[in-house]
Amino acid sequence: MEISALQAVQQRVHRAMVAAGTQVRLLAVSKRQPDSAVRDLVAQGHRTFGENYVQALVARREAFQPFPLEWHLIGALQSNKCRLAAMHADWVQSIDRLDIVAQLARLRGVDRPRLNVLVEVNIDAECSKTGCAVAKLDELCAAVAAEPRLHLRGFMAIPHAHVELEARRASFARMRDLFDKARHDFDDFDTLSMGMSDDFELAIAEGATMVRVGTALFGARPE
Fold first, then answer.
1. CA–CA dist 61, 129 (Å, integer)
2. What does the pLDDT average to over 180-207?
3. pLDDT > 90? residue 166
4. How many CB atoms lie within 10 A of CB 76?
5. Are 137 and 128 in contact (CB under 8 A)?
6. Which of 51, 76, 142, 211 is deepest in the core (most CB within 10 A)?
7. Residue 209: pLDDT over 90
8. Topology annotation, domain 5-218
9. Exposed/middle/buried for 92, CB within 10 Å: 0-12, 13-18, 19+?
């Protein structure tokens, strides 16, 4: 019997996870996919989804309100979108500067659980990408950890997309080193989000605890 795309990805994640001796969460990236495609994964039991844009996350949350789904913001967060992110996201994976930290903390309601936060790291120092410079990580992590309405959980990164997958290994390994160091300094620092459809197995081998998969689950994004 033919298996679904979700089952195929789950099997690949499981094999890589067993080989690495780690636990890994699968985040389904539903950017620009129709609600029907998300609904199909929900029907198969998947519960964790990521969106690149705050407005899209809010719309998804409202559309799937009856379901106990977990919503992650994985795209760059602008200051004028902090209120929506603080109100509607369960996780924000793209924290890269101090002013965003202060706003999210101020706007997260006391009636909600603490907002789970990942600091985005610009691991390859690419001018075209967002993310915190490695030299400023300690300061930014400390600022997040000091906010009672935020819950610092780890790092997120999108390494340079070298054509050869093995060329990405060094970036993943550097992220693992940074993650291991930070785990000694901050409580509950348990999440290293890295790896996408074309390289998540390599990322798991190098220490990822969460992978963000879109195309392998949904197919190519609609234009």
1. 27
2. 96
3. no
4. 16
5. no
6. 211
7. yes
8. TIM Barrel (3.20.20)
9. buried
Mean pLDDT of all residues in the chain?
A: 95
Question: In this structure, what token pair is assigned to residue 204?
Answer: 């798991």
Q: Summarize the confidence of residues 44-50 as an average pLDDT.
A: 98
User: Whose CA is closest to 193, among 9, 29, 15?
Assistant: 29
- Non-local (6+) Cβ contacts of 179 within 8 A are 154, 155, 189, 192, 207
Model confidence band, residue 163 (pLDDT cutoffs 50, 70, 90):
confident
The conformation of residue 221, written as its DSSP 8-state character, comes to P
Residue with tokens 């109100």: 87
Asked if residue 35 lies in contact with residue 49, where contact means CB atoms within 8 angstroms, the answer is: no
Task: Select the more confidently predicted residue: 168 or 210.
Answer: 210
Cβ-based neighbours of 120, under 8 Å, separated by 6 or more: 93, 94, 95, 96, 130, 131, 132, 155, 156, 157
Q: Are 214 and 197 in contact (CB under 8 A)?
A: yes
CA angle, 212 as apex, 206 and 213 as ends, to 5°? Answer: 110
Domains of the chain, by residue range, sit at: 5-218
